[in-house]
Amino acid sequence: MEVNLAEGTTFVTYSQSIRSVINAASTLALDIRTSQYFKDGNHRTGLLALALYLAEQDVVFTSSFHIYRAYTILSARFHPGNESNTLNAAARAHAHERIVRYLRRRTVRGVPDSEYLVALADAVRQLPIIISHVEAVGASLRKDRDPPPLNWAQKVVVKWTFPEFKKGRAKLR
User: Fold this and answer.
1) Which residues does 149 contact at the CB level (< 8 Å), separation at least 6?
2) What InterPro entries is this protein classified in (predicted)?
3) How far from 101 is each of 33, 74, 84, 94, CA to CA, in Å?
4) Which residues lie below 8 Å from residue 91, measured CB to CB, with a gap of 6+?
5) pLDDT by residue (tens digit) across 32-63?
6) Stretch 71-97: mean pLDDT
7) What H or E segment, with its residue span, contains residue 173?
């Protein structure tokens, strides 16, 4: 909603808070991910729907947003309520809480341009490559515990995916 002032100055007011927009976007993404509407790509479609809903509400990601991290949260892969790609009510509530918490610090008001939207779509499109690489590293770590050389960013991504490599003897150094 735009409000015009007498001297020709215009400013924008929003009908919803960022928090409520994030909540609605997260609910939409989890519904797509949980209901498994498509044969393949439900997690990625849910993530893209989340990003597009936020953009439609003039909410954009900050530079601290990582698409793969949002993907791992949305997937809830290590939650005990994640059964055969569907989430029980407790797992869904937990994933919703985590994605909302993650996005609250990584979104701001802003008008997305076409380059922003194309970059998001490309990032989602590249997720299968990242996922397969991280899965291969995880399998290697579980098998021999002799990890391939990983840089800092790769270690972070592996820890996001495999919680067992965060602590104790299995901790990545």
Assistant:
1) none
2) Type_II_TA_Toxin
3) 18, 12, 25, 11
4) 76, 79, 80, 81, 82
5) 999 989 999 999 999 999 999 999 999 999 99
6) 88
7) none
Q: What is the DSSP letter of 60?
A: E
Residues in the chain: 173
Place of tokens 């290697």: 140
- Check if the beta carbon of residue 38 is closer than 8 Å to that of residue 31: no
Helix 114-144 with 42-56: angle, nearest 10 deg: 150
- pTM beyond 0.90: no
**Two structure tokens written together for 110:** 């802003």
Residue with tokens 């007498």: 6
Residues 6 or more apart whose Cβ sits within 8 Å of residue 54: 21, 22, 25, 60, 61, 103, 107
61: which strand partners?
Answer: 107
Q: What is the 3-state secondary structure (H, E, C) of 88-150?
A: CHHHHHHHHHHHHHHHHCCEEECCCCHHHHHHHHHHHHHHHHHHHHHHHHHHHHHHHCCCCCC
Whether the CB-CB separation of 148 and 137 falls below 8 Å is answered with: yes
